[in-house]
Design goal:
alpha+beta; globular; Peptide Deformylase; 7-stranded mixed beta sheet; 4 helices; two-stranded antiparallel ribbon
């Protein structure tokens, strides 16, 4: 596996690195899990805080979430999307400026952006737990989340553009909210109809990716 050139175009846990594998180490270690789908109860209630840090169980969950996110061709994944009732999400995403961001955060809290400083950006948004459809959704183009890493150490992650959208989307998941819940009723209904039509195709592609990952 080739590393990226040493131009510090990758940020791991919010910090720039000189090189990083094309396949994150967590992805290689992890086992692909089933992704929960809209309507399942675990997706529609707030998750419990992570209280046990530095454990093999937490490390295994993070690795599995990376592997699952990779095979589903996702940008980020929350723990309740693999059935784990914990305030935790991971990401592996390339932003609008070509910078790759890789990491995880537990017990994240989004900073409040003052209305005067808030710039909304409307772009298509999808969700691995709503397989298939994308719908336009306005979100602030800047986000900061504060939380803890797998060892319980403080972590601050800042994102702009697409990465900011990812941080907000995954934080929503941990509060029991899907992007569908932010849509007008008509757009939500049309997205659910499209999901019903396309989900088998999406599931088949994920299964093929998982088989390739091994």
């Amino acid at each position: 596996m080739a590393d990226t050139p040493p131009d510090r175009r990758t940020r791991v846990q919010g910090r720039p690195v000189d090189a990083f594998p094309a396949l994150a180490p967590e992805t290689e270690r992890g086992t692909v899990r089933r992704i929960t789908v809209v309507g399942e109860e675990v997706l529609h209630r707030p998750c419990r805080p992570v209280t046990a840090f530095g454990t093999p169980e937490l490390a295994r969950l993070i690795d599995d979430m990376f592997a699952t996110n990779h095979t589903a061709e996702g940008a980020g994944l929350a723990a309740n999307q693999v059935g784990a009732d914990l305030r935790l999400f991971v990401w592996d995403i390339t932003d609008d400026w070509g910078v790759r961001h890789v990491g995880h955060i537990a017990n994240p809290v989004l900073d409040e952006t003052p209305p005067a400083a808030r710039r909304l950006l409307e772009e298509p948004e999808g969700c691995l737990s709503v397989p298939g459809p994308y719908r336009p959704l306005a979100r602030p183009d800047h986000a900061v989340v504060r939380g803890l890493d797998r060892h319980g150490d403080p972590l601050v992650i800042e994102g702009h553009g697409y990465f900011a959208r990812c941080l907000q989307h995954e934080s929503d998941h941990l509060d029991g909210r899907l992007y569908l819940d932010r849509l007008p009723a008509r757009a939500r209904r049309s997205a659910l109809r499209e999901m019903a039509d396309r989900q088998e195709e999406v599931f088949a592609r994920r299964a093929a990716n998982a088989a390739r990952l091994g």
